[in-house]
Design brief:
CATH class of the largest domain: Alpha Beta
Structural class: alpha/beta
CATH architecture of the largest domain: 3-Layer(aba) Sandwich
CATH topology of the largest domain: Aspartate Aminotransferase, domain 2
Distance between the termini: 50 Å
Bound molecules: pyridoxal-5'-phosphate
Largest sheet: 7 strands, mixed
Length: 375
Amino acid sequence: MQEFSTRCVHAGTISDKENKGVSSPIYPSTSYAFIDRDDTVYPRYMNTPNASAVATKIAALEETEKALVLSSGMAAISTTILALLSSGDHIVFQQGLYGGTSNFVFSELQRLGIKFTVAKGHSVNEIMQAANKDTKMVYIETPSNPLLNVTDIKAVADAAKSSGIISVIDNTFASPVNQQPAKLGIDLVIHSATKYICGHSDICAGAVAGNPDLIEKIHKTGLNLGGSLNAITLYLIERSLKTLDVRVQRINNNARSIAEFLAMHPKVKKVNYPGLPEHPEHHIARKQMKGFGGMLSFELKEQESISFQKKLKLITPSMSLGGVETIVSSPAHTSHRHLGIEGRKKEGISEELIRMSVGIESFQDLIVELDEALN
Ligand SMILES: *Cc1c(COP(=O)(O)O)cnc(C)c1O
């Protein structure tokens, strides 16, 4: 197999037989011939040439046999869960889920009779203790949002496998550059491709990669739910993935420098970054991650989070993550607002917590700005 960065550039590329261009042609047709061929090609079937090209590339990067590309991370998550679970089945979620996932669980699963338990924490023991005889799936997210907790992926995959349970991970925060969960035994790897995979804060997409039998089931349900993408967006995802390795390597280095800077800063109470030796699960992160990613969070000591963010210029206070530009947000005012002060306290989310998605700018410029805003 070729090296990761080579696969980023070349895997799945559609050969342009007519003009010999080096990039994949874009096929915008929604109508395809049916005579003398055994498959039916249609955009919603997620099997047009550009959809297959991106799916092939993502499967190559996650080192799985198959992948499917969908219209958002939530389309990937909901289609996966609805394809594989029925009324009466039970699913275990780790604590500290992405907000959209948790909304989906609480507002849709209950109504459909799919039973669920949110584990008491994110450790393998807490997750597996929540399983029962009806459990068909365990679902983890590591590193998690916004505290960057780390779960032992291989331990969860092994425990699930020995009980005949499907294991699923949301691998958005790490990206396949830093973490390839299928190699550790996870059955299905989900991405919000809106984040690092697309990487320029201008595309919404999702993906699921893994075991071919499971992907086929998800694909069948996907045709019914209809979360497909158009050719132009698919081409842009393919284009974005060519630079995934260089972007994320740079982001890893920047984030580590910024985490180290913040950890030493007198106006910062605490830094959450899996790459810091003082992170409680650093030993697990070292085992399963090649780099520690671009997401970190930190607690301010003396300043209110909104007034700190208002002082930033280059770094924009805004939602989402995974782009080339550095952004910050305060979970108490955005993703975890609905929990209220008491709910946030229970999850360990301080009112003065700042979450940061580190970009590819020069880290020196970012550090100068952070230092000014902190003082
Ligand atoms: C953004 C995000 C999602 C949802 O993805 P969309 O593309 O917004 O639907 C799921 N999981 C994580 C960890 C995310 O950051």
